[in-house]
Write a structure and sequence with these properties.
Blueprint (H helix, E strand, L loop, with lengths): L10 E8 L5 E8 L5 E7 L6 E3 L5 E3 L2 H11 L7 H17 L3 E3 H15 L1 H11 L5 H15 L1
Helix pairs in contact: 1-2, 1-4, 3-4
C-alpha cells in the first residue's frame, strides 16, 4: 500500500478488523519510512457472472433458475433433495470457475449428463425442454439413444 504521506510502498499492518456484516476488512497500517499511520479497506469484488443464451442475449447467472429446472425434472421421482442441491452446487462452482461468461449450452449439457446418471425419466423431462423437441420423432430418437446405451 502506498503511504499517503511519503508515497513509500513498504508498511506494516498494525490491526485488522472485519466489518460487522462481513463485507469488508479494515486495516490500520504504519509506514515503515515515515511512521505515518493510515487506514485501508479491503472489499470483496463481486463481478456478476453472465450466461450467454441460445439467441445470443446475455443475462446474469441465476442459480435459482437452475434449481427450478432440476426440481421440475425430478418432480414425483425418487430423487433425494440432497442430490439436486449437490448438482446445483456443482453447476454454480463450474460457472464461478469459468471466465466471466458461460454459454447456456454448456450448463444444459452438464445438467443432462448429471440427470442421465441420476434418473432417466428426469433426464428425458429435462432434455425435452432443453433440446426443444419439435416433433415426436426427435423425442423418440433421444429415447432410443438412451435405451441403446443402457444395453
Amino acid at each position: 500500500m502506498k503511504c499517503p504521506q511519503c508515497n513509500n510502498l513498504e508498511d506494516k499492518v498494525i490491526e485488522t478488523r472485519e466489518s460487522k456484516d462481513g463485507n469488508y476488512i479494515r486495516r490500520r497500517r504504519e509506514c515503515l519510512n515515515c511512521g505515518k499511520r493510515f487506514t485501508t479497506y479491503e472489499k470483496f469484488e463481486n463481478i456478476p457472472l453472465t450466461v450467454v443464451k441460445k439467441d445470443g442475449r446475455r443475462e446474469e447467472f441465476d442459480i435459482d433458475k437452475v434449481r427450478k429446472g432440476l426440481y421440475r425434472a425430478v418432480e414425483k421421482r425418487p430423487v433425494p433433495t440432497k442430490q439436486i442441491e449437490q448438482i446445483s452446487f456443482q453447476i454454480e462452482e463450474m460457472v464461478s470457475n469459468s471466465e466471466k461468461e458461460v454459454n447456456t449450452k454448456k450448463i444444459g449439457e452438464y445438467i443432462m449428463e448429471k440427470l442421465k446418471s441420476l434418473d432417466k425419466v428426469a433426464y428425458v423431462r429435462f432434455a425435452s425442454v432443453y433440446l426443444e423437441f419439435k416433433s415426436l420423432e426427435e423425442f423418440l430418437y433421444e429415447l432410443n439413444n438412451l435405451l441403446r446405451k443402457e444395453d
